[in-house]
Structure formats: structure tokens, C-alpha cells
Amino acid sequence: MKIFSKEQIYEGDKLTSERQNISSTDLMERAGTQIFNWMHMRMQGAQVPIHVFCGIGNNGGDGLVIARHLITHGYNVKTYIVNCSDKRSKDFLINYDRIKNVTKKWPTLLNCTEDFPEIHQDDIIVDAVFGIGLNRPVDDWVKALFMHFRSTKAFTLAIDIPSGLSTDKIPQDEDAVVWAGYTLSFASPKLVFFLPETAKYTVQWEVLDIGLDQEFLYTTATEVDLIGKHEVLPLYMPRKKFSHKGQFGHALIIGGSYGKIGAVTLASRAVLSAGAGLVSVYIPKCGYHALQASFPEAMVLTDVDEELISKIDFKITPTVIGFGVGVGTNTKTVNAFEAFLKTNKVALVIDADGINILSKKKALLKLLPEATVLTPHPKELERLIGKWKDDFDKLKKVKAFSKKYNAIVVIKGANTITVFEEKLYVNTTGNPGLATAGSGDVLTGIITGLISQGYNPLAASIFGVYLHGKSADIAVEDFGYQSLIASHVIDYLGEAFIDLFKQPEEAQKEEDDSPKA
């Protein structure tokens, strides 16, 4: 799914009006009707008090359309105009007149805190105050109104975007933003729904099709893509009947140090579970017996040093190398990594202390092969690119870094974002159970394993992040968030692959047939 920018949405509205020969008022009617239909299907006439708060721009016009349809269908509706300016949009005024024609209870004008209505916890608030076009600070009394919404604990439904939230910058004051339980977004979700600092403003979201021009939707290139099953399925490379392990590459995992051989074990297990034909590991001598015993499918090479990586010397010819898990930052290891980079021509995936070494010696970044994959967690990313003032600044810095070094950066988080040059790929799988030791090592292994069997590094990163999260989503059904561990993610990786080909009705049948408590 594409995530359109604010400017692209405006352009889409304009093109739709021109190509479909409809007015902006007609398009507003279509949008408001779609939201009413969404509510009507779920409420089925229930007489829950609904408070519709409308601004005086086009978002407010959408709210008036919703309120009008709710009124004509017999719902218990109260409509309010948040009278925060003298500038009313044309389409708002048209719909203001229309709602007056269907009810004797005209919308209540709100001008200050004394006007705030009584709202109970079991009521519903529809937030249609500001849309994506807000470009000024929220008035103090409007901020107080938004705080009033929160204090009532009533379910809040935001139209297109929670009021006070911008599509391209972080709010300076969280109290000046509506905190929505649900947001119905037009044409596409907004990037701010997925960023750590702004995701909190909507618990859930859904995209509504309001009939924007199809050619515009299909042909417009976006800076941001949202990655789900439909986006990764075309990446999948099927296997032929007479395939053999030699066709799926030989991956090498270099890492480990005394007490951290488990990281290499997890990564190398994930390599094979992701589909690589062969996996070798290069570790300090201390890990030889443990790894051979715990993971017999791996071939083990050892450093001359007992406790750490001091010299990277191997005779095999790997397809791809994953470096950094559990490796530490000892001076010997740093020097060994630098010497290795000066001669290496093989594709790389770098994680953990591999990233920390690059952060300490940034000159090494120039030695990375084209499309090297880096998988930092937030603190590792900060060491790599420096501090950022907010999430948008972080993305700007990562894009600049990616472009400068021709590297793919996987920003790990609740919605992991893969960055390559100017393009962002926002993942939709995963859950809080992944906040556990070793889950990053598993992701490194999955991406390495995908590159090994022929996926290009960008496709491997996008697909790998999706599979990693999907495996955790399946596993969490059996283990819960607290008891999910990194090994489970590997164990359920096969089910994540199988899920790619399940039809919706198959998934629903499995759920219906599952044992009930």
C-alpha cells in the first residue's frame, strides 16, 4: 500500500474532480457518506449519544455530511462547530446549510471553554475539527477542548487524521492533539500513524476508499510504502522440483565472543530456516563444541583466539556474510574487521557490534560493498548517524546516510522501517513479544539467508522484516507476549512462509476450528 503525502492527496482530489467531472462538494459528500456507512454498519441504529465536532474547513465539512446522514437515519446526534477562525471553506458552508435543512437542532457554535458540552464515557466523539491542512498552532481553548475529549474517556473516532496532528512534523504539545481510538483515513494511512513519537495519537486506523481517480492511485510514486502480505508475496521466489542446496547459496555468519555464542547460534539457525542452502559460522574457539552440539546443521570455523574474533580468515567462498552478532568491540576484533573490509567483495549484513565498530571508525563505512544491509536498534542507530531532534529528523538523517554510503538501513522498532536512499518501507507485522533478547540476531539471520538464496539485498530486507514479524505474530498466539523468545521466532518461520499463500477464508476457518476455552 502506498502512503501518499499531503501534497499528493490534494493533487489526487483535484485530478478526481477533473477526470470524474464532479465538484469538490460532491467528493466531500462521497467521503462523508463512506464514513457514515462505516459507522452505520457497526452501530445498526443504536441510540448511543454521538457528538460530532466540526471545524470550519473541509474536515469540518466532512463532519457535517456525517452528522446529516446520522440525523436522517435516526441516530442520537449532537453537532458542534468549533468556531476557531473567520475563514470558512466553501464546501463547509454548503454543508452547513444542508444540515440546517434536515433538523431543527442546528449545530452548536463553540467559541470558548464555557461552551464545552457534557460528554459521558459511554458516548461517541467524532473528531472532524482539523484535517491534514492544519498549518498553525492550535488555539488555547481548542487545546482545552481536545483535553476535554480525553478526560471523558469516550470512544473517539477521528476523520482522516486526529485533529492537531500534522502529516509531516511532530506536535510540540501532545495536549493540542486529539487522542483517537480509531482513525478513518482517506486514500491511504499517514506516515505519522507508524512513528514512535506519533503513533500514540491513534490506537487503530483504517483506510476508506472514497473513489479517488484510479490512474492517480496506481501511477503516483510515493516516498513511503506500507508493507503487508500483498506487498511481499510478489517477492517470493518459488522452488523447482529438482532444486538442490547448492542453488540456495552458502551463508557465513561471523560473530560471537566468550559468553555470547548464543547470538551466533540464533542467527545461523535463522539463516537455514529462511531458506539458505548452507550455513557456516566463524567464531572464537570457545564456542566450537557448544555450537556443533546445539546446531548440527551448521559448519563451524574457528578463530585462533579462544575468546574473541582476532583475525577473519576462512577458505570457503560464501554467497553472503552476516557480521556482528555477539562479536564485541575489543581492539583485536575492530582491527580484524577493518582488515576484512579492505579485501571483502561479498554482500554484507551488519548488526549489533558490527554497527558499533562502524560508528567508532566511520572511515570504514567507505569500505562497505554496494547495498550493504545495516540492522541497528535505536541506540545503535544514534551512534551511527548522531542524535536527532524528532522522528522526522531521524528519517531525514537515515536517508542521507543511505544515499551517501549506498547502504540499506533497517530501523528496528514496533513498525520497522527499511530505508534505501529516498525510499521508506514501513512494516506492518510484529508485536511487543519481539522485545526480547536475541530477536535482532534472528532478523539478521533471516535477511542473510534470503540474500544467500538469490533475493537482492533490498528485497531480502523488506521480506525478511515482514517474515520476522509474521512469525512472531503466529508464535504469540501460543506463547503470549511475555513468554515469546527469539527461538520461537525461528521455530514459527515456516508457518510465516505458509501463511503467505493462505486465502482469507482458510485463515478464518482455522480460527473458527481452534479449541475454545
Please provide a written account of the structure:
It is a single chain. The chain is an alpha/beta fold. It has 18 helices and 18 strands. The protein has helices at 6-20, 24-43, 58-72, 90-100, 140-152, 214-219, 229-232, 261-273, 288-294, 331-343, 353-360, 378-385, 391-405, 439-452, 457-483, 486-491, 493-499, 504-513, and strands spanning 2-3, 50-54, 77-82, 108-110, 124-128, 155-159, 180-186, 202-208, 224-227, 250-254, 278-283, 299-302, 320-323, 347-350, 373-374, 408-411, 417-420, 423-427. The strands form two sheets. The chain has an eleven-stranded mixed beta sheet with strand order 1-9-18-17-16-15-14-13-10-11-12, sandwiched between helices. Strand 11, helix 9 (288-294) and strand 12 (299-302) form a beta-alpha-beta unit. Helix 2 packs across helix 3 (58-72), helix 3 (58-72) runs parallel beside helix 4 (90-100) and helix 15 packs across helix 17. It is elongated.
